[in-house]
Design a protein that fits this description.
Order of helices and strands: HHHEEEEEHEEEE
Strand content: 25-35%
Bound molecules: zinc ion
Helix content: 10-25%
Shape: globular
Largest sheet: 5 strands, antiparallel
Radius of gyration: 16 Å
Length: about 160
């Protein structure tokens, strides 16, 4: 593996990352997001672009910290990089393959992001929940929760 190549493909350039951040280059968006989920190096660059452009209403991407997963009685709690969100996966007690997934905002972001639109996907790009943040969270039922690739998630916020 040379420096240009990576499991998730070629590293995007800074201008490509910036373009998707501000809502341009929609054609490359999916492949770049997919790359960011698996490439900590590019994610770090992307996050620093985000910091430089706090007012951007394009795209905000959060992926879980690698060591940020806590499990308690079957419930997974996963903190994201930067500490903005917690993803909570609660398997249903009644339906073996169903459950409820919640994306909750950290208290310091609740005012800023109330009403924002959130899309949570798993590592394979499967959309899990999608909706507006109400009272600091989005929570939805998800079927076939056992087939989710829970190793990495990505949250998009607009
Ligand atoms: Zn990369």
């Amino acid at each position: 593996m040379n420096d240009k190549q990576h499991d998730g493909g070629v590293h995007p350039s800074i201008s490509e990352m910036y373009a998707i951040l501000v809502g341009e280059q929609q054609g490359k968006r999916e492949s770049i997001i997919k790359h960011l989920v698996d490439c900590p190096k590019c994610l770090e660059i992307f996050n620093s672009l985000l910091d430089m452009r706090k007012e951007a209403h394009g795209l905000d991407i959060a992926v879980p910290k690698l060591a940020g997963t806590r499990a308690h009685q079957g419930v997974l709690r996963i903190d994201t990089e930067g500490g903005k969100y917690t993803i909570i996966v609660r398997p249903s007690l009644k339906a073996a393959q169903g459950g409820v997934i919640t994306v909750a905002l950290a208290p310091e972001y609740q005012e800023e992001l109330e009403g924002a639109w959130i899309l949570l996907k798993d590592r394979k790009g499967r959309p899990l929940i999608e909706g507006r943040i109400v009272n600091g969270q989005v929570s939805q039922r998800v079927e076939e929760i056992d087939t989710i690739d829970a190793e990495r998630f990505v949250i998009e916020c607009k």
